[in-house]
Amino acid sequence: MTGIILGWLEMNAGMRTILAAIDQSRNAHSVIGRAAELAALLRTELVILTVLDPDPMRKFSIDEERNRIASFHRELLFKHFPKKGISVESNNPSEPVYRYNPAGIRIRLQTLSGNPVDSICGAADHLKADLVIVGNRGLGGVGGLVLGSVSERVVHKCSRSVMVVKGGGESNSSDWESIVASQQAHLNLGNR
């Protein structure tokens, strides 16, 4: 199995941008955990995107919802990247940018409004994302049963490669310790 993963990493070493599209479900942790691992291993930029579906029956105003999402994005960021390695690159409220210094990767947090599938696919094209990561379960509700899930529709519509992450597991710090050790070993081999 390790040989397969190393082969895949070598083939995809030229990746520049990973787009992780999440909602506010529990599955977001699994998606960001996988995206963080790949971004650190491949040293790519990571864009974390949440799309607000315009719903006239929403409980909160758009501004309140954007603030809730920004807070959720920061929670995910600090859960899946060690805090001591994160620095703020840009504190623009509409699109904050962070840097995870040990791996040298940029992490951008974005919130868009609109149809989730169209917005995710449009953002992937705009960013020229090498990989789009989505979860297999979200907050879709009954509409997903009739129309198909957002992830399923993104897989079919998106012109970029899409990875669907199954929910249930969250990354933990021991994953990070092994990733950092692996990176250090790889860098040390390259310096010989």
Explain this structure to me?
There is one protein chain. The chain is of the alpha/beta class and 192 residues long. The chain has a single domain (15-108, 116-181), classed as Rossmann fold, CATH 3.40.50. The chain has helices at residues 2-11, 27-42, 62-80, 116-127, 142-147, 150-157, 173-190, and strands at 17-21, 45-52, 86-90, 97-100, 105-113, 131-135, 162-165. Strands 3-4-5-2-1-6-7 form a seven-stranded mixed beta sheet, with helices on both faces. Helix 4 (116-127) packs across helix 6 (150-157).
Unreliable parts? 141-147, 169-177, 186-192
Shape: globular
Mean pLDDT across all amino acids? 80
DSSP summary, beta strand count: 7
* Share in helix: 40-55%
Which CATH class? Alpha Beta
Beta fraction: 15-25%
Count the helices. How many? 7
State the end-to-end distance: 27 Å
Strand order of the largest sheet: 3-4-5-2-1-6-7
Biggest β-sheet description: 7 strands, mixed
Count of the domains? 1
User: What series of H and E elements makes up the topology?
Assistant: HEHEHEEEHEHHEH
Describe the protein's topology.
Elements: H1 2-11, E1 17-21, H2 27-42, E2 45-52, H3 62-80, E3 86-90, E4 97-100, E5 105-113, H4 116-127, E6 131-135, H5 142-147, H6 150-157, E7 162-165, H7 173-190
Parallel strand pairs: 1-2, 1-6, 2-5, 6-7
Antiparallel strand pairs: 3-4, 4-5
